[in-house]
């Protein structure tokens, strides 16, 4: 292994390759900040450039740099304007945006940058040590386990079911799952619930829905309820990007746990960064002490650190099946696989043996990329955070512009804009009625995968016997029940105790 | 040309999304001034790669002056077809890329039009289909797979990356039928992306996978799978070890083609110009580079040959889909 690291170091530290990392990170970060352009589209755009370089190591290092940069930049729009451009940064906005509203945007961006850095770096170490061993573990997961994993992911909604909100959160989740059934699914030959509209054939777009649920209502809310637009702490504090000692102490174990958990989830093909971020959020909320638990969703640094470290670690984790098995675990790695093949590199068990310089150069470039991103981003944070100091009359059109642009550029389809505005208005009404919108989006994101894996398992096992015939499925489902029931049980017990009633009714 | 200028002026992001690779022409023998490629799906898909790759080869080789690209997704490709037909008069400079699904989707009524409503320019590339098994599987041939299926029909599922009734399913059903089995009886498990289907194959969830040949070759080269049947007439040079379905007594051939269509009522001389440019493209090193990079197989059908090929494919697929109960 040491020899491999040396090969990787000497490859990655050549002048061209260093330029590739820096260039890739810069391009990725800046384009990634725009909602609507996720890592997948940025990499797709960069592939012709990378291929024209010719040298596979350099090309791959460039693309990997773009990838990390895009993930890094993606959290910025979630935190600042509540507009998550990719599914894996939805959980980032849960606590990142409230922090920004409290005038702590600088702090939020710093926490996100550090968590991403830690998640990515720990992920890279794990990748280096465990990649070959983990490849076989990933194959233990069948559709039945993926189904159960999605159920565990859905349990993240428990985090939004505050007092008296359980029914509302549940309703919104179900609505999200229902919305996910629109269009031509992977399992049916016929489009469903499209009402004959051709534009609904491929279902609702994720970005359209994310903008409609988060960013647009936020902008409308600022207009309709001007008193809210005064941030609670005043906008002057934006420069404050220091993390206090207490906060650093609080987030360190969170980052550690979520980097490892996120990496392991990322290894599973098809689970990926989104599930990792939701699960990370749910798990951290459940194990937090009661008083901190209430902070989740209102601007908890822990709630921000958890999904950020988890999604970055998961992105690194998704390289395990790509490099060792040649299986792309996510849309982004699928595009990377295409680029690899175009460069005459065949990922698979033989890659480490046949072309070790490529394998190791990628891993070393991951460390490098993470360090460079941190160096690039920390000094920029005060300037980026200043966006929020822009007066409301300028900020709102700015948010609206990016919201509409984000929904449009992915598909170049103007109908998306009508859907966006329609849902945006519905979402604003729901917000005024105090319905949480995040569960809807979680339900929508996980709904399709939930259904696909469930019906595949049903088909393979001729019924639902897979639930008890496969121990891992059963175990995951039990875990999901615990994640949902435990918080409300704890709350009830606390209430019962307060009323002087004995435990265990 | 106006469109190109506009594309350069719009905001950075929009320009990035609909990137234009305009290379000035310097070589003699330019056949067409400019081509606007209409891509019925999003960036990064198979259609997108085909259009951009073809445009790159045509412009670099100097056969076409400039190429521009437009992604118009929606309706499984139906939106772009509708657009091309409705705005036919103003789209004589447009070529739309499409592939086998245009046949399948017009049969199932996903969109009301079919290929006859367009001007057929040429089928340019293709890919055969293949059935693969994991490298450690006891199955080594189609005969083994059929035997395993007969022994345990419920436990021998075949997976694929398309919906039931889609291409991968149809290929598996064709092979089953040609082997004398009931094409409606076997379990077809759909996955929404090739990668997940591969993971399912290696994890043992499915016994075999129906997929594209070029994808299968990449995996076979990586030592992950064994190719047990190819839907070509003869063994393919790219991977000589893979036996054809035919040589195993299963009379099944299938080509997943990709090609170009133009607006209805395209003037004859323009059609000829496009066809000439595409025909000349095959002999250029620029095309060879793009083709090799993507692992495409040259399967060239011009105009009337293309029509005959599509009509035959429509017939075969339509009959099979009726049998499978999808029509």
UniProtKB/TrEMBL annotation, chain A:
Keywords, in A-Z order: Membrane, Transmembrane, Transmembrane helix
Every DUF112 domain range: 18-441
Keyword Transmembrane in record: yes
Keyword Transmembrane appears in the UniProt entry: yes
Transmembrane regions: 6-31, 43-67, 79-97, 109-134, 146-162, 169-190, 202-224, 263-283, 327-346, 358-381, 393-410, 466-486
Name of the molecule in the record: Tricarboxylic transport membrane protein
Organism expressing this protein natively: Roseibium denhamense
From TrEMBL, chain B:
Signal peptide (residue range): 1-27
InterPro entries hit by this protein: BUG, Bug_dom1
Residue intervals passing through the bilayer: none
Keyword entries, A-Z: Signal
A Pfam short name: TctC
UniProt similarity note: Belongs to the UPF0065 (bug) family.
UniProt name for this protein: Tricarboxylic transport membrane protein
Species of the source: Roseibium denhamense
């Amino acid at each position: 292994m040491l020899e491999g690291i040396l090969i990787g170091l000497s490859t990655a530290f050549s002048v061209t390759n260093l330029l590739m990392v820096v260039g890739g990170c810069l391009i990725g970060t800046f384009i990634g900040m725009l909602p609507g352009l996720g890592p997948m589209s940025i990499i797709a755009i960069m592939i012709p450039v990378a291929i024209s370089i010719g040298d596979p190591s350099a090309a791959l290092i460039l693309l990997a740099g773009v990838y990390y940069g895009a993930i890094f930049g993606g959290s910025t729009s979630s935190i600042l304007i509540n507009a998550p451009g990719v599914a894996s940064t939805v959980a980032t906005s849960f606590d990142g945006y409230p922090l920004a509203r409290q005038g702590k945007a600088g702090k939020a961006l710093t926490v996100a940058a550090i968590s991403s850095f830690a998640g990515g770096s720990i992920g890279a170490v794990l990748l280096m040590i465990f990649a070959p061993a983990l490849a076989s573990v990933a194959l233990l997961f069948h559709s039945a386990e993926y189904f159960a994993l999605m159920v565990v992911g859905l349990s993240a909604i428990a985090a939004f079911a505050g007092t008296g909100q359980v029914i509302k959160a549940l309703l919104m989740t179900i609505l999200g799952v229902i919305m996910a059934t629109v269009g031509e699914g992977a399992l049916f030959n016929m489009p469903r619930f499209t009402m004959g509209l051709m534009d609904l054939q491929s279902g609702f777009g994720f970005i359209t829905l994310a903008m409609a649920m988060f960013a647009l209502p936020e902008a409308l809310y600022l207009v309709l309820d001007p008193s809210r637009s005064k941030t609670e702490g005043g906008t002057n504090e934006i420069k404050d990007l220091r993390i206090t000692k207490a906060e650093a102490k609080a987030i360190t174990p969170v980052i550690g746990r979520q980097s490892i958990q996120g990496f392991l989830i990322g290894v599973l093909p098809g689970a990926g960064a989104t599930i990792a971020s939701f699960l990370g959020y749910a798990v951290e909320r459940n194990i937090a002490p009661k008083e901190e638990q209430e902070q989740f969703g209102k601007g908890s640094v822990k709630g921000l650190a958890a999904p950020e470290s988890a999604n970055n670690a998961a992105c690194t984790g998704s390289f395990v099946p790509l490099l060792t098995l040649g299986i792309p675990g996510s849309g982004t790695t699928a595009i990377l696989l295409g680029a690899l093949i175009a460069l005459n590199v065949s990922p698979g068990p033989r890659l480490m043996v046949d072309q070790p310089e490529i394998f190791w150069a990628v891993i070393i470039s991951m460390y490098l990329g993470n360090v460079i991103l941190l160096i690039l981003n920390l000094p920029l944070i005060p300037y980026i955070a200043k966006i929020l100091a822009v007066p409301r009359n300028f900020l709102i059109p700015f948010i609206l512009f990016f919201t509409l642009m984000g929904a449009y550029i992915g598909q170049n389809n103007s109908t998306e804009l009508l859907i966006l505005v329609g849902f945006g208005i519905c979402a604003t009404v729901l917000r005024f009625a105090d319905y949480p919108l995040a569960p809807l989006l979680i339900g929508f994101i996980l709904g399709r995968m939930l259904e696909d894996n469930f019906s595949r398992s049903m088909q393979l096992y001729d019924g639902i016997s897979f639930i008890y015939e496969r121990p891992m499925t059963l175990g995951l489902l039990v875990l999901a029940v615990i994640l949902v029931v435990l918080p409300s049980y704890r709350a009830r017990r606390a209430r019962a105790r307060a009323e002087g009633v004995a435990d265990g009714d | 040309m106006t469109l190109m200028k506009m594309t350069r002026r719009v905001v950075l992001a929009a320009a990035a999304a609909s990137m234009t690779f305009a290379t000035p022409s310097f070589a003699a023998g330019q056949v067409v001034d400019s081509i606007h490629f209409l891509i019925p799906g999003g960036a990064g898909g198979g259609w997108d790669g085909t259009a951009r790759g073809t445009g790159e080869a045509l412009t670099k080789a100097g056969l076409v002056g400039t190429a521009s690209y437009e992604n118009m997704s929606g309706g499984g490709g139906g939106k772009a077809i509708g657009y091309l037909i409705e705005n036919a008069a103003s789209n004589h400079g447009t070529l739309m890329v499409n592939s086998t699904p245009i046949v399948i989707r017009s049969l199932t009524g996903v969109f009301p039009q079919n290929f006859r409503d367009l001007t057929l320019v040429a089928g340019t590339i293709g890919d055969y289909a293949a059935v693969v098994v994991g490298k450690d599987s006891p199955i080594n041939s189609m005969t083994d797979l059929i035997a395993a299926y007969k022994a345990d029909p419920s436990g021998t599922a075949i997976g694929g990356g398309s919906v039931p009734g889609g291409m991968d399913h149809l290929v598996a059903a064709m092979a089953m039928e040609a082997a004398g089995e009931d094409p409606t009886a076997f379990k077809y498990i759909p996955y929404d992306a090739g990668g997940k289907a591969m993971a399912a194959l290696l994890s043992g969830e499915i016994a075999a996978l129906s997929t594209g040949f070029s994808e299968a070759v990449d995996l076979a080269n990586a030592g992950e799978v064994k190719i047990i049947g190819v839907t070509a007439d003869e063994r393919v040079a790219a991977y000589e070890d893979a036996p054809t379905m035919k040589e195993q007594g299963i009379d099944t051939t299938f080509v997943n083609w990709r090609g170009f269509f133009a607006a209805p009522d395209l003037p004859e001389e323009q059609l000829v110009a496009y066809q000439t440019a595409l025909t000349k493209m095959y002999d250029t090193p620029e095309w060879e580079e793009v083709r090799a990079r993507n692992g495409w197989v040259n399967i060239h059908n011009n105009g009337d040959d293309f029509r005959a090929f599509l009509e035959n494919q429509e017939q075969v697929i339509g009959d099979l889909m009726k049998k499978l109960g999808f029509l």
